[in-house]
Every structure is written in structure tokens, then in C-alpha cells.
Amino acid sequence: MRIYLRYLLFRVLIALCDLLPQRFLYFAALRLADLNYYWLDRRGGRAVEDNLRVVLPEASPERLAKEARWVFRNFAKYLTEFFRFRHFGPAFFRTNMAMFGLEHIEAALAAGRGCVVSSAHLSNWELGAAGLSIMEGKKMTVSVAMHRYGRINDLFMRERERMGLRVADMERDAARALLRALRRNEVVGVMGDRDPTEQGVIIRFFGRPCRFPQGPARLSLATGAPLVPAFCLRRSNDSFSCVFHPPIPIPAAGDRAEKVCRMTQAFADVIAETIRLHPEQWAVFYPFWEGNWRPE
By CB count within 10 A, which of 54, 88, 179, 264 is most buried? Predict the structure, then answer.
């Protein structure tokens, strides 16, 4: 019953996002996010504050509370945008998204081995993938964690497909689908900061041991496709900067396991630097260093 009620809630949310103007949706999202942070999800709020305490060790309790509140707010904005993707055509992206570092994508594709774009749960990561597809015409396959409840999962899949994205199940056929896309010299998108398989590598993140997924580095090593860190970051006026960083270098020495670990560490360092600049956009609602996240 609880899952079915959640499904109905998502259906209502989709309908509202379809009918109401974006400015009103943002207003409502901020109010609901505050309610969630202060009253409904105190467990998640404490987890966000604890995570930010590692990111911002010198911050006062007041600063941490402020940043945590905006994590909830920015995530609520992301949800309104996610369920409104059908309204975001080329004109929206030309007006509301600036892309930086596209030369790294073009150079990767010019080499003919495809490109592995990896991001983290910062701001609206899915809007960045949609922008690359719609604005730049890049064919893109993305690996995602499927929802355990099929009807909710179908809602999410339809929204992603409306963005022109091919979707692969992280825990089933993702590896084959991503490899096929890279052989076609296309772009693949993988999230690089959550490891639901518990088979990742231990690296250091903000100075602490942390398990990160191996997938992005292994894909790059297996195919020769450059691994490009990318983040779609919200600006103060709710437009976006989509930033593509230089590719993570492939180590010249070491066995495969050593190379995977070193590339993953380098990727995690890029994520950490980005989170330091935008802590209010890091949407992680569980104790990150405990690694106990599971797909819902």
C-alpha cells in the first residue's frame, strides 16, 4: 500500500508539473522542501548535515544547516524539472544552459572509440545528459538504477526517454548496452559516486576511505574511450552550466586493478573539488561514507 501511494503521488506530481508554470512549481518546491527538511525527513536532514560536515570541516553549525536546507531545496527543484522534461525543447536549452569543455567530447569522438561521460549526484545531472543529446545531437546511452516497483520505474523511464536518452539497467544489461554504444562511437553516461553492487574500489574522498564504483574506469580501460567528468550545475537564476572536464588520464603502468583504482581516485578528486564549490547542490540523503545506499 505504501508503495502504491508513492506511485499515486508521483502521478499527481507529473500532472501538476505538466499543468503549472515553472515559476510556481519552484515556489511550491521550496516550501515542500523546507517542510521535508525541518519535519518530515529529519533522518535525511541529519545525514546531509553529517556529510557536509566532512566537506566543510571549518563551517559553523549555522552554515551547515543553511547548506543542508538548500540541498533539500535544490533537489526539490530538480524533481519539478525532471517531471517537466517534455516541455524542454531546443529553445529551452539554448536559453537556459551554457556548455563548457565540449572540445573534450569532440576530441574523444574524433578518436573513434566513443566517450564515457561520468557525473555525480550534483544538481540536475539528467538535464545535462538531455542537453548534450538535444543541443549537440549526441546519441547517448545512460546507465541508471531501476526502481524496485515496476510502475514507478516505468514513470521514470518514460521521462528519460522523452529526453532522447537510451536507458540501460545498471544491474542487468548496462555493461553490454554501454559497450555496444561505445563501439558505435557514441557517448555513454554513468554515475560515478554510488556503488549499489558493493564491488567498487576503496579510494579516499575528502580524506576518508570511501567505496566508489569501478564501472566508469573499467569501461574506459576496456574500450580506450576517454573518461570525461561532467557536471550540470545550477546557477542562482535557475539556469545551468554544464561543465565537461579534461579526460582522466589512463595510467601507463600497473595492472588493470591498479589502473582502475588510480583512475577512480582521480575522478573522485574532481568530484570533491566540485562539491567544495557547490555543497548546496550535492543531493546525497544517506551517510555517504558508510556506503549503505540501495536503489529504491
Answer: 264
Instruction: Label residue 167 by pLDDT band (50, 70, 90).
Output: confident
Average pLDDT of span 207-231: 96
Provide the phi-psi class of 295: left if phi over 0, else alpha when psi is between -120 and 50, else beta.
beta
Type of residue found at 105: I
Nearest-CA neighbor of 250 among 268, 264, 263, 265?
263
296 in any annotated domain: no
pLDDT tens digits, 71-92:
999 999 999 998 888 788 889 9
CA 291 → CA 47, 136, 202, 213, distances in Å? 12, 35, 11, 11
**What is the distance between the alpha carbons of residues 100 and 97, in angstroms, rounded to a whole number?**
10
Total number of domains constituting the chain: 1
**Quick check: is 295 in a domain?**
no
Residue 200 belongs to a domain: yes
Q: Rounded mean pLDDT of 13-38?
A: 92
Q: How far apart are CA 85 and CA 96, in angstroms?
A: 13
pLDDT digits (tens, 9 = 90+) for 47-79: 999 999 999 999 999 999 999 999 999 999 999
